[in-house]
Records
---
Amino acid sequence: MSMFCYQCQEAAKGKGCSVKGVCGKSEEVAKLQDLLIYTVKGISEIVVKGELEAKELGEVNHEVLRSLFMTITNANFDGDAFVKEIKKMTVLRNQLRDMVDAANKKNNPGFFQKLLGLKKEQTGKKINVSALHDAARFETATKAEMLKKAANVGILATKNEDVRSLRELITYGVKGLAAYAEHALNLGKEDLSLYGFIYEAMAATLDDALSADDLVALTLKTGQFGVTAMALLDGANTGKYGNPEITEVNIGVKKNPAILISGHDLTDLEQLLEQTKGTGVDVYTHSEMLPAHYYPAFKKYDNFVGNYGNAWWKQLEEFESFNGPILFTTNCIVPPKSDEVRGRIFTTGASGHPGCTHIEADGSGKKDFSKVIEMAKRLKAPTEIETGKIVGGFAHEQVFALADKVVDAVKSGAIKKFFVMAGCDGRMKSRDYYTEFAQKLPQDTVILTAGCAKYRYNKLDLGDIGGIPRVLDAGQCNDSYSLALIALKLKEVFELNDINELPIAYNIAWYEQKAVIVLLALLHLGVKNIHLGPTLPAFLSANVANVLIDTFGIGGIDSVDADMAMFLGA
Ligand code: SF4
Ligand code: SF3
């Protein structure tokens, strides 16, 4: 087998991609991603066994986030970027290892502190480095050596199917958590406990002494830190850009040349808006960037004019008709088919694609988007593909402001049930289920959504209940945190003991690893009976799936009519 990956919902044949990713990931990139993750595991083992403190590990912490984020589905297809990252991470790893090496004679005060940019010299615990896992010791110099090494360290290197399943479930949760932590970090917000947990979890995936029960416990702990990461990002976003408010977003186009910005990073958007101000170039959001329109801070930009297109998987045709440059701040990239479109795509942060221009931040986090703006000026304005408006902005504070109205509607019976339909969209035909499900929901139900899953129904006219729209969009996938806060608030208002007594059903669509951390976070918050579709993850072994079913009532989806009857208790 040339490669093996089963981290997303579109894993080939529901089992795993073994020749080339359905996502477009090549064998080479898949292997380099495996080796990068292996290196992160090695670093984690050194930190844990050497008892190094996350609070002193500044640059290492940040690079670990970046490495994990780069391996998320559809974030980065650039083999050279992975080679560079593996080299960087092995250098950091070796420096950390030397620092804890009991046999290291170079006990030169300040040496490692300077080398690693640490805040203070770490003494840690002296360990015998020859006893460390291979992940903390292997050496590769060239891409060819990396690919050779990677062939033996991927997912299938763990032979026991259940242990493999749990190790991967934890790893994918940690990838999602790292992505959210990186967005918060870009806004200057960190929570050191998150790094400590990442090291603990990634090191644990190397530890053959851990039992399946230990790994189940660690899976739940991953959800706990998922909540921490989402709360951190929520605070970072709302602290800087204000609380999202009800907003109508134009989905048609204007006459100016324009830039399309995709992905999840709001600091990138802010910098782009600042740099395009007064240039005659408009900015449109794409896919997961749509919720940026809900933040008060971005409303002051006259050239921030609307949202273009739909969820990520429709980008091949939509980027053709957009005509202008596209800036990816994160996933989800679909490898472009034509040189013309590839030449118009820019990437930044953890995202990347060969043939596209990558823009890095300078030392202070500033990014120079002048090349993108210059390109926009030379190109045609976008071609209109639809007209109208969509409404969103129902994050926690906005919904709390409407709490009386919502509670009255529930008490009067005008709202019978809420359906959390957050998560991801994807290209599988079976996802038509979600459009049909939304359409068939009775008029006395409300959909709570977040993430790109919303594109399956956010342009349908589903009406409102006494002025409350029947689709309440809280924002990006990380804003599923808002939906959890809303549920907790309703539990408090209705004086219930258990969040599961609320009239809320969970019918969630997943695709990539951010959805994994959202799911684990909801489990940590005590939410039961979540239905997950369109298929259950290929990485869940039968036994691990059974644990989730027995402990949390997790289920898949059936036909729309059968599920409707099940959810509505008919
Ligand atoms: Fe396949 Fe998904 Fe992995 Fe891509 S990310 S290789 S589609 S399982
Ligand atoms: Fe979508 Fe990629 Fe997951 Fe952030 S943009 S939800 S799939």
---
Amino acid sequence: MRVLVTGGAGFIGSHYVDLRLKKHPQDQVVVLDKLTYAGNPANLKDAKKNSHFTFVRGDICNAKLVERVIQQHGIDIIINFAAETHVDRSILHPEDFAKTDVLGTQVLLEAVRKFKLKRFLQISTDEVYGSIEKGGFRETDPLKPSSPYSASKAGGDLQVLAYRHTYNLPVLITRSSNNFGPRQYPEKLIPLFVTNAIEDKPLPLYGDGLNTRDWIYVEDNCSGLDYVLEKGKPGEIYNIGAGNTKTNKEITSAILKLLKKPCSLIRRVPDRLGHDRRYALNMKKTRDMGCQTQWAFTRALQTTVQWYLDNPQWWQPLKTGEYMKYYKKQYVDRHRK
Ligand code: NAD
Ligand code: DAU
């Protein structure tokens, strides 16, 4: 199989590339990635040693490039991780999100149609369902996204479903919950708080800290979506969660405890605009298919914290960029007194 992994230089995509090369050693894997601030060639360090791997730098919105890559490499399937992914950035610059997450997805679908590819897997998110007070969303629930990020991801999903309905394309969608693990950009809650705590910097906890997410270890998500790719039915949507629903306060305490740092590092800061209160997924459909998670939350968090302790050369340079400066000014400096 010749697999095109778009967005494969990012956090989840790079873990999937590692899994794919290990689990399907006969495959050829091509990554197409624009290398935005979130894309990092260092994430593909191991993959680059494999003769079955190729990297192409480019934008999924560029239809000509996408077509050329598909033709040159004889691509059979596309797995689309490429997206703008950070909710806080989407509140500042919504236009980048609409472009990549909606238009980029449509460009890929058009290529799937033109070249009659065998499969297209869209990597989506639980955020498209919106917030839920109790229980978990099912795949059949209506979409009610609330941030420019989740609205753009929902737009991408709707394109995928429309291409299925209209052209009968062999598409699948996975919607996963909050991932964590090594190589996650240190703007997201867990890597930001772990790296700040390592450096004895404040941890900016939004609002009352009681917003809740279901946390899944990145390797479990990658195994899950690989499972769906093999066993899933074209045209179907599959939730991928772990059932680890935790408040941000609980996550913060667990990180501080693992690093033996004081609670005085926590800074209460103004809430995110339009902050969704709780995300949770009903996992019946995916579990009935035989798809299970392997990682217990505590061991996964320990492994993650240890990775950031062992790899400061990976994350330290990322914390000096323009956004991180803006972020610090916005949320931390104002509350330092
Ligand atoms: P990430 O921000 O770490 O990586 C995104 C990657 O996409 C980067 O390598 C970036 O360079 C690339 N990219 C961005 N725009 C591009 C474009 N126009 N053309 C080509 N490449 C482009 O993201 P992630 O956390 O690894 O998320 C991957 C996917 O999984 C996304 O689609 C996201 O919506 C989805 N998802 C993420 C989570 C999570 O918790 N991180 C949860 C559910 C779903
Ligand atoms: O649910 C899946 C989604 O999870 C993915 O689709 C997104 O790509 C990914 O970014 C993530 O979105 P969240 O907004 O849930 O993740 P984030 O890490 O930004 O925030 C997690 C929670 O922590 C959220 O309630 C906001 C809070 N938070 C976050 C940051 C960055 C803080 O309290 N302080 C912070 O500094």
